[in-house]
Amino acid sequence: MALIGDKLCVDRWEASLVDEAGKAVSPYEPIKQKKVRAVSKAGVVPQAYVSLFQATQACESAGKRMCTTQEWIDACQGAKRPMRTYPYGNKHQKGACNDTTRIHPASLVFPGRARHDFESLNDPRLNRQPNTLAKTGAFQQCVTPEGVHDMVGNLLEWTKGYRRPLLMGGHYVDSVVNGDGCHYVTPDHKEHYHDFTTGFRCCKDADPAADRASTPPLVDSAAPLAPAASTVPSAPVGTGRDAPRSFGNPFGFLPKVSPPPYEPADAPCPTDMVLVDGERCGLVEQVCKGFIDPPGMPQRACREYESPTPCKGARSHLRYCIDRYEFTAPGEKLPLVNVSWPEAQNLCHKMNKRICFEREWEFACEGPEAWPYPYGFVRDGKRCNHDKDNLFVRGNELFDQRVPADALPGCKSPFGVFNIVGNVDEWTHRPGNEAPNRSILRGGWWLMGRSRCRAATGSHNETYAGAQTGFRCCKQAR
What we know:
This protein has two domains: about 1-230, paralog of FGE (formylglycine-generating enzyme); about 235-478, paralog of FGE (formylglycine-generating enzyme) (Alpha-Beta Complex). It contains six helices and 20 strands. It has helices spanning about 50-60, 70-75, 105-110, 120, 340-350, 360-365, and strands spanning about 1-5, 10, 15-20, 35-40, 65, 155-160, 165-170, 185, 200, 200-205, 275-280, 315-325, 355, 390-395, 395-400, 425-430, 440, 455, 470, 475. A hairpin with a 4-residue loop joins strand 6 (about 155-160) and strand 7. It is globular.
């Protein structure tokens, strides 16, 4: 381990695993129920496919513990001013770390198909592809002055964040979308999530009686250093279970709601909902003409689709009501987030509504002509609130880039539904799935990603709640 400051020891290398007999565990496969112990050494393939829960147990078996996010940041950028943006200094150096792979391994394992579901992302073949996961210490310049290797690139690293688990540092496919270098943060996964990018290293409190004089830094760095970065913020006033649920307070109480009125009395939908009535095509062919994703990233953000959209399946008639806007708590201007699927369902029920079925949400977004985006065939991140840069950080925090319901009048679907793409992810119900996997997120949020009518995220079960998860409700029309 390396000494960071005076009180913290951090593993020099990303963790690999051994079993109870001390035999190396395959780093290319999920560890499932195996009893394992974390080791940190150079020249081995580090363990991917590991969850925070499993990593915590492995560290404890080694007499260590999981790093907090702030401890990880201190090890990467330095614990004292001036701070670094990258382990080696302030400016990015191409090739210094394993962070510039130009092809997603899923495109090699599943040629011709875009596979980003949980099972595919845990395929043991992914990190065996050429120019993907590197052995620990193989990128000799990717090291801090204290001798901690590979903190940027190679694998994401689990940490215990201020409010939720956070994955830090980027990986070999991407180290820029969610922040630069030491400030790269992925907040979207709970403690049992794992895929081909998730790894870890362990921490331990330094021995206060140890002699520091004999342990100088291993590396001298003459690289220019970054200005001081923000530290993890303390809990703001009015947070916790005694304050309302909000972007900065994921544990607060939910708002009180009541059923909206019908005006006029014989209207098909309540005043806050719009009527969706038309013929939906169940199977369409949407052909992308080019993507805008950065090089090396999965191709998810399509610049433009071919027009019109051919219908390849049967049509069915749908008639129902859907909320005009994403749910916003009474008295607030921004949509409610940090809401789980059951919480969203409960709030809808209190308003005599329900969570939308996937096909209802989808039809309300794309209309009878099956537009890829609610406004047509050409992507426009300014028209709807998506494709934002600078997602992070205030310490560990996600920048709040939600907009009010009426801020983007051009983000309107053919049925008059606003902000159904971008702004916040929206919970929907997938019929046929059993609990706790009935929950599907639709529409994307303010980052560059899915953000279109036919895309879906199924990797979060019903208990998940994030700073980007919101909802809108549906109900039967009268």
